[in-house]
């Protein structure tokens, strides 16, 4: 990857580069074997780093999932700011978030429920322990630097925040009913988004994301559409 346009220090660039390398190494291993069977030593060997280096970037193996969450949200943010999505309806953008998650799940061998369980299991402290910086963003998305401010730390919208913004956008564009309860609607959408893990946990059976999302998303969106 070429050096970003922004004038990052060499230290910032190298930190972002190595942390991203560890993430990609971990995801590669996770496609071949279960998360619980992946050791820090394996990650270090594959990434060609020492254990000491690994712990300079991540307090534990599980913290890689937190960083993955930042990267996931960053990619959603970048995609939704592309011209082809700016021209889409609010519903199409909401559907894109769900479709993006399905593709991610397919790419990494149905790992999204495991990632979701990580989110549900950990408190906010783990978010603070692995922050996503401007250097991370610019290293990963050098052509999209204009989307962020000059702050050393950037605030990426979460999936929930993206959904709230898109629901409000739909009201402003008169795609959704003006009296729609945004808070209630986002509750429903997030319930759908996280439901596959819950269904799997309590029914102990596979529930493909695409099957769940396709079955339920229409039921939430259709009643709030502005049909005038």
Question: How do the helices and strands line up, and which of them pair or pack?
Answer:
Layout: H1 10-30, H2 40-47, H3 51-57, H4 63-80, H5 83-86, H6 90-107, H7 112-121, H8 125-129, H9 134-140, H10 159-172, H11 182-203, H12 209-221
Helix pairs in contact: 1-2, 1-9, 6-10, 6-12, 7-11, 10-11, 11-12
- Secondary structure tally: strands: 0
Overall pLDDT, averaged?
Answer: 85
What is the end-to-end distance?
Answer: 50 Å
Count the DSSP helices: 12
Low-confidence stretches: none
What characteristic shape results from the CA principal axes? Answer: globular
Quick overview of this protein structure:
The chain has 228 residues and is an all-alpha fold.
Walk me through the structure.
This protein is an all-alpha fold and 228 residues long. The chain is 64% helix and 0% strand. It contains twelve helices and no strands. The chain has helices at 10-30, 40-47, 51-57, 63-80, 83-86, 90-107, 112-121, 125-129, 134-140, 159-172, 182-203, 209-221. The longest helix has 22 residues, at 182-203. The model has no long low-confidence stretch (mean pLDDT 85).
What characteristics describe this protein?
single chain; 64% helix; 228 residues; mainly alpha; globular
């Amino acid at each position: 990857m070429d050096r970003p346009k922004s004038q990052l220090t060499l230290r910032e660039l190298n930190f972002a580069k190595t942390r991203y390398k560890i993430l990609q190494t971990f995801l590669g291993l996770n496609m071949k074997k279960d998360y619980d069977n992946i050791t820090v030593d394996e990650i270090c060997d594959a990434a060609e780093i020492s254990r000491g280096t690994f712990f300079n970037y991540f307090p534990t193996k599980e913290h890689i999932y937190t960083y993955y969450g930042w990267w996931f949200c960053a990619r959603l943010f970048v995609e939704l700011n592309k011209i082809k999505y700016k021209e889409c309806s609010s519903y199409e953008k909401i559907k894109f978030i769900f479709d993006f998650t399905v593709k991610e799940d397919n790419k990494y061998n149905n790992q999204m429920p495991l990632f979701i369980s990580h989110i549900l299991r950990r408190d906010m402290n783990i978010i603070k322990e692995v922050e996503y910086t401007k250097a991370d963003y610019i290293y990963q998305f050098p052509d999209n630097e204009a989307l962020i401010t000059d702050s050393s730390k950037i605030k990426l919208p979460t999936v929930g925040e993206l959904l709230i913004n898109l629901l409000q956008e739909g009201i402003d564009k008169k795609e959704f009913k003006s009296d729609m309860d945004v808070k209630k609607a986002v509750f429903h959408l997030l319930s759908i988004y996280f439901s596959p893990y819950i269904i799997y946990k309590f029914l102990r059976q596979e529930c493909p994301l695409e099957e769940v999302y396709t079955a339920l998303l229409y039921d939430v969106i259709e009643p709030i559409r502005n049909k005038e």
